[in-house]
Amino acid sequence: MKRRDWIMLSASALGFTACGRQITARQPVSYNFEHGQTAMLRGGIAFAPKRAPEAVKRAIQAGNRLQGKPYKWGGGHAVLNDTGYDCSGAVSYVLREAGLMQGQMPSSGFFNYGERGEGKWITVYVRKGHVFMTIAGLRLDTGWGSNRSGPRWLTKTRPGKGHVMRHPRGL
């Protein structure tokens, strides 16, 4: 076995993937309501489609519990049920509460979360220093740039280019 092959085998055994194998978003992340397929947003509260898998419904319920919490650097990491959340703390909270991961991880950890590419129900978008997600087509984000208000359901389109897409297995 060549040294390079051994290094790649060792990296994959640890859960790392080569950057060239990641699937990155090329389009903006947009919300387009489709009855029965996407979550509905009313008064800042999200409602899952009736036929969504239970894990998706739990993820939306968890995202609803984060609404109104402030952005807090490191929030959701040292304290799982925190008074505020940063981007990775919010995504970790939702996935953990939905039964789709254990514990929490920093944004860089999501480069190796779940499966590659866009999911049918849940997609995690990650780039260096930031992570957000869509659940049943509705975006949960803490904001970007100087607009860090805390975890919110958002329907406004945001740039997706350059973000690696990952999703929970089967979703």
From TrEMBL:
Residues 150-171 are annotated as: Disordered. It comes from the Bacteria. Residues 158-171 have a biased composition (Basic residues). InterPro entries: Papain-like_cys_pep_sf (IPR038765). Coiled coil: none annotated. This is NlpC/P60 family protein. It comes from Haloferula helveola.
